[in-house]
Design goal:
The protein has 159 residues and is an alpha/beta fold. The protein has five helices and eight strands; from the N terminus they run αβαββαβαβββαβ. Strands 1, 2, 3, 4, 5, 6, 7 and 8 form an eight-stranded mixed beta sheet that branches. The longest helix has 12 residues. The relative contact order is 0.24.
Length: 159
Amino acid sequence: MADALSRSAKKIQEALKKMGAACEVVELPDSTRTAAEAAQALGCAVAQIAKSIVFRTAESGKPVMVIASGANRVNEKKIAELLGEAVEKADPDFVRETTGFSIGGVPPVGHAVPIPVFLDEDLLKHESIWAAAGTPRSVLKTTGENLAKLTRGKVTSVK
């Protein structure tokens, strides 16, 4: 794990510090862009990877984030029911515009604009989980309960 953090990873570390979170951002030599790559690089189960997926509401065009266990596929119809509006996966430009980060490194906190979050209840089953921290090689270790507090996310079934 690297000692010096990239600019984007530092931004997340600073955001966590401002929130009073004791999470430490680390950068790895291997990619963590996908849940499988992250699990391989960290030596943990894919289910312990908290993948951040940004959606765009179909009518109002607003962002919404689902933080799901790496082992789960997000059911977009379920998210639409929770929101009362259909959703579609956001394109890379929308993701960068609303979060300030590129797909593959989107963190659960520190976004460019406030984004409502739905947190996969399955993440709370693990003693520790790992989330992206601003780049495709940076991560932060936390718990599902802590992630729910940090994001003010609604814990629910997303699959």
